[in-house]
Design a protein that fits this description.
The protein starts with 5 loop residues before the first strand and ends with a helix. It has a 5-stranded antiparallel β-sheet, with no helix packed on it. It is built from 4 helices and 5 strands; from the N terminus they run E-H-E-E-E-E-H-H-H. 49% of the residues lie in helices and 18% in strands. It is an alpha+beta fold and 124 residues long.
């Protein structure tokens, strides 16, 4: 089932990474490296691999991957964009502190991301 991770011992490294490609796409979650092989997302840690299947390969369809496998990233970006647009309007009206407004936009995006991730994990 997509989203479920399995742990694979390091001893199977040659088998696991034979055709997998190292990638920057995806959340590393503390992994040393990460790889993709089709819809498989493989994270390499010091002593193990964690592997899960994505519904959509981000190399083939990045937007589809965000929608189906990582909606929390999409919602976080939407929160940040919305608050950022409101900040721009406010900044032009009353010349407030741009640094605090940008920080608020970042925090808003992060909270949207974290909240959506918690909901997603709860529903899985």
């Amino acid at each position: 089932m997509p989203g479920d991770e399995i742990e694979v011992p390091k001893e199977l490294r040659e088998f696991m990474l034979e055709k997998a490609e190292e990638t920057i796409l995806g959340q590393k979650n503390g992994a040393e490296k990460q790889y993709r092989y089709g819809n498989l997302h493989i994270r390499e840690y010091h002593d193990k691999f964690l592997v899960h299947t994505d519904r959509i390969d981000p190399r083939e369809d990045p937007v589809g991957h965000l929608i189906h496998d990582a909606p929390e990233v999409l919602i976080g970006l939407a929160f940040a964009a919305f608050t950022g647009s409101q900040i721009v309007k406010k900044f032009h009206k009353n010349n407030s502190s741009l640094a605090s407004d940008i920080l608020f936009s970042i925090v808003s995006g992060y909270l949207g991301y974290v909240g959506t991730k918690k909901i997603k994990n709860y529903l899985e």
